[in-house]
Specification:
Strand order of the largest sheet: 13-14-12-15-16-11-17
Low-confidence stretches: 751-763, 814-818
Bound molecules: adenosine-5'-diphosphate, magnesium ion
CATH superfamily of the largest domain: P-loop containing nucleotide triphosphate hydrolases
Radius of gyration: 34 Å
Number of helices: 28
Distance between the termini: 62 Å
Mean pLDDT: 86
Largest sheet: 7 strands, parallel
Structural class: alpha/beta
């Protein structure tokens, strides 16, 4: 092996050296290399072997490659061989590797019958012939109402009963399949209860395992069986959880099967068992039987619905085959299967994501076809707005503003999401859009999720727009009935060109004179529905959604898949990164000292703690306790208190005092998350930081660092929170980039956590896991986009069209599509 390796490395060195100086002198490196690689193969461990096999495939087409690719390939080979093919390492890897033998029993084969159209599978499970009441009830408990639900009720894990592990490689507490000959059969009695125990020892040359049978009922049967097997010298397969005892490995009540050379087929072993989620009171074996019963009845009739080109392009099995193999795996690569990467699983995951992306794509297209408003915006108007601004727009703001202007000018309705980190300056950009709308004679509605935020937007929009004589109004739930009525009237008559508000904006009584632009500050709190409701207040207004929490690309593609996305990925100049540090409880003293030092410089401090429970009493108690604690510690600096149970006026007055400096410290619940700009605030202390999501912590941190002084953020937590939580918080220490943080939050906590469970309702998938299946998502999105642009009517794809409308018809109003 060493010799072959040496020759390979020498050859690769020669062709690549001195920037391929001798490239043309070496004749047919592919032929020589292929020969050497094949010699090397038997000496490699599994990982290297499969890599090299792939390389061999590539080399088959070497001659057809352009020179550039050839060189790249050789260069890569050279690097890999130098770094990863050291003889000692190869030997070590081989030693550590478990020799694999797979025993596969006959496949459960699908017998393809005639196919039924897809809608047949949207019928109730009751319609399946031969299904009894009890089974039906059990399926319902699993949430399986329609046949398709059963097909989509996929295993979340697989138990491998096909791979034989040599006994020397067993590990305690794992489930293993072993194969060996019977060397001993004996019966014991427990000393206390006089119960009989059967002990059978299996041996496979690498070691031994003891099988134990304790049930009286089966004891005699197994005893005579194993005695006979021992006489005949037959091999036995045993599967179960391996325990380590002083006497060696043992398996209690294994599943066993005798390998009979005359009878090829195995009954229990040699299969990969799917494991399904169970409902309360239903056993795994029963769930498996029920699902398999259903699958066997219906899948043979299941039609294909994906376009042929897609199946071919990605080498996917057909639908019935794919679902069958996911429910009845047999000879698949176990590792692939367990990582949800088998061809059938990929197809099934692809299906789910593709259908969703297709639904979104068609919906977007449908919206685009509708005639929206074409705002007459020219350069003069843009300049007019920019001239009055007290600052110059950043490059990113300029870019996004252009995108918005293009959308607004076009007669297609705008549906755009503007993402931008805290303080990146989204508000100005949306104010510009409102300005253009007003100058074109249209009204703008700006909807925010909370009153505080609505108030803040109201102030900002007034600041930006009043200089142009544009009237901005505020409509929130806390207005009196009379005030509301006055507002309604003024909105309807078009007195206000811009109306900022909360949910109050989508109440029935609200009517606009001519709503042309809808701005929604999302903060993940509105769904597609609310967006649509506000839109209905006008005739095809343009829609601009803003979000301050950067959304990982993965999620943007799904949760916001129906929107075009713009990103403000640059902060206004002069912002200094905020220094962030985790502080453990036992380091509090130095934190207090630090705060006093900052305060003595005239800087201000936020101290935030999480809502402990949604109980008024508890919250009040927590708030007051915190307040007293900090008041004591930071004397004589004045401390203010702000919490959710205070009236709006109280909140405003506390905030105002903090802004003016009458309070140097503000102790608060998360209500300041969307608070007012206070440039003198330089320190943000977050108590029980582990209870917040990263995105939220990042938002809170964004409250400081708004002036030109150096700012700090302290994440206070206890040492007992566990490694993962510390790791999570460390992300904040390491970066100020909201996108990186969002990506990390997503990986740590999953999409549900970021959005909250009730979130937009988009992107909750049954099979796909966006963290695991990002690559598939990209493929699915691309395929869906291609199909929408090539065949928007889905001509010749009846099943696909029907499937879409059956699954997404309501959600996307797709019934009329296609
Ligand atoms: P966001 O809504 O994205 O959190 P804002 O629009 O509230 O950010 O902007 C944050 C602060 O930065 C505001 O005080 C705003 O006036 C200011 N600002 C916005 N754009 C710029 C810019 N290009 N240059 C300097 N300051 C800016
Ligand atoms: Mg438009």
């Amino acid at each position: 092996m060493k010799q072959t390796l040496k020759r390979i490395k020498e050859l690769l060195f020669l062709v690549t050296r001195d920037n391929f100086k001798y490239f043309n002198r070496v004749k047919d490196p592919d032929v020589v290399l292929s020969k050497l690689f094949k010699e090397l193969l038997p000496y490699l461990d599994r990982k290297r072997k499969s890599w090299l096999n792939r390389v061999l495939k590539v080399l088959e087409n070497y001659k057809g490659l352009p020179e550039k690719r050839k060189k790249e390939l050789l260069k890569e080979l050279h690097t890999v061989f130098t770094l990863k093919f050291l003889p000692e390492e190869i030997e070590r890897a081989r030693e550590r590797e478990i020799p694999r033998e797979r025993i596969i029993s006959k496949r459960e084969k699908i017998e393809r019958k005639k196919t039924y159209p897809i809608e047949a599978f949207f019928q109730e499970v009751e319609k399946v012939k031969g299904i009894d009441k009890r089974r039906l009830n059990r399926l319902k408990k699993l949430g399986i109402e329609r046949i398709i639900d059963g097909i989509y009720y996929l295993p979340f894990r697989y138990e491998d009963r096909t791979t034989v592990t040599p006994m020397a490689y067993l590990k305690p507490n794992g489930e293993f399949l072993v194969k060996g000959k019977v060397v001993n059969v004996s019966e014991l009695q427990t000393s206390k209860k006089k119960k009989r125990i059967l002990k059978v020892v299996l041996y496979d040359r690498t070691g031994s395992v003891t099988l134990l049978f304790l049930q009286e009922r089966v004891l005699n049967y197994y005893k005579s069986l194993f005695k006979k097997v021992k006489e005949l010298g037959r091999e036995v397969l045993a599967f179960g959880t391996v325990k380590r005892k002083t006497s060696g490995f043992e398996i209690v009540h294994p599943e066993v099967e005798i390998l009979d050379p005359h009878k090829g087929k195995l009954e229990k072993l040699g299969t990969i068992l799917p494991v399904y989620h169970c409902a309360e009171g239903i056993k795994q074996t029963t769930v498996r039987k029920d699902i398999h019963f259903l699958i066997k009845k219906v899948l043979p009739y299941f039609p294909e619905y994906l376009p042929k080109e897609i199946l071919k392009k990605y080498n996917f099995p057909e639908a019935h085959e794919a679902f069958w193999r996911v429910h009845f795996p047999q000879d698949e690569d176990v590792e692939e299967l367990q990582n949800f990467k088998s061809p059938s699983q990929k197809r099934v995951i692809f299906d789910e994501l593709f259908l969703f992306q297709l639904a979104i794509g068609l919906y977007k297209q449908k919206v685009k076809k509708e005639k929206g408003i074409s705002f007459p915006i020219d350069e003069g108007l843009i300049e007019e707005f920019k001239k009055v601004l007290p600052f110059k727009l950043t490059g990113a703001q300029e870019k996004v503003l252009r995108e918005i202007v293009n959308d607004m000018k076009s007669p297609e309705p705008m549906n755009r999401l503007v993402q931008g980190d805290v303080g990146s300056g989204k508000t100005v950009v949306s104010a510009a859009a409102a300005f253009f709308a007003a100058r074109s004679g249209y009204q703008t509605a700006v909807m925010a999720p909370t009153e505080i935020l609505a108030n803040q937007h109201f102030k900002k929009f007034k600041e930006f727009l009043n200089p142009y004589g544009i009237r901005v109004g505020l409509l929130t739930g806390s207005l009196s009935k009379k005030q509301k009525e006055t507002m309604y009237k003024a909105i309807k008559e078009g007195y206000f060109q811009v109306v900022v508000g909360t949910h109050a904006l989508i109440q029935e009584g609200v009517e606009f004179k001519n709503l042309g632009l809808v701005v929604i500050d999302e903060q993940h709190r509105f769904g597609v529905k609310q967006r649509a409701e506000l839109k209905k207040k006008g005739r095809m207004p343009d829609v601009l959604v803003m979000t301050a929490t950067p959304i990982p690309r993965t999620l943007a593609m799904t949760a916001y898949g129906d929107l075009d996305v713009s990103v403000i990925d640059e902060l206004p100049a002069g912002r200094k990164p905020i220094e962030t540090k985790i502080v453990f409880e036992d380091e509090r003293r130095s934190l207090v000292e630090f705060l006093r030092k900052e305060l003595s410089k005239g800087n201000r401090v936020y101290i935030v703690y999480p809502l402990i429970e949604e109980s008024e009493k508890l919250e009040l108690k927590a708030a007051t306790e915190m307040f007293h604690y900090w008041n004591e510690k930071l004397k004589p600096y004045p401390v203010g208190l702000l919490h959710g149970r205070m009236k709006q006026e109280e909140k405003d007055s506390v905030m105002e005092k903090f802004k003016r400096g009458e309070f140097s410290v503000l102790v608060s619940t998360t209500v300041i998350e969307v608070g007012v700009d206070v440039p003198e605030a330089t320190v943000m202390v977050i108590e029980h930081a582990e209870r917040f999501g990263l995105a939220q912590l990042h938002q809170l941190r964004g409250r400081v660092g708004r002036g030109d002084r150096k700012s700090y953020c302290f994440l206070v937590t206890s040492r007992g929170i566990g490694e993962d939580s510390v790791k999570r918080l460390k992300v904040l220490e390491s970066t100020n980039d909201g996108f990186k943080i969002a990506e990390a939050d997503f990986l740590f906590r999953g999409p549900g956590e970021i959005f909250g469970t009730r979130q937009s309702g988009l992107g909750d998938f049954k099979v796909a896991d966006l963290r695991r299946d990002y690559e598939v998502l990209k493929l699915a999105r691309k395929a869906a986009e291609e199909l929408v642009s090539k065949n928007p009517e889905l001509e010749g794809l009846d099943n696909l069209r029907k499937l879409l409308s059956l699954r997404f018809g309501k959600k996307f109003d797709l019934v009329g599509v296609g």
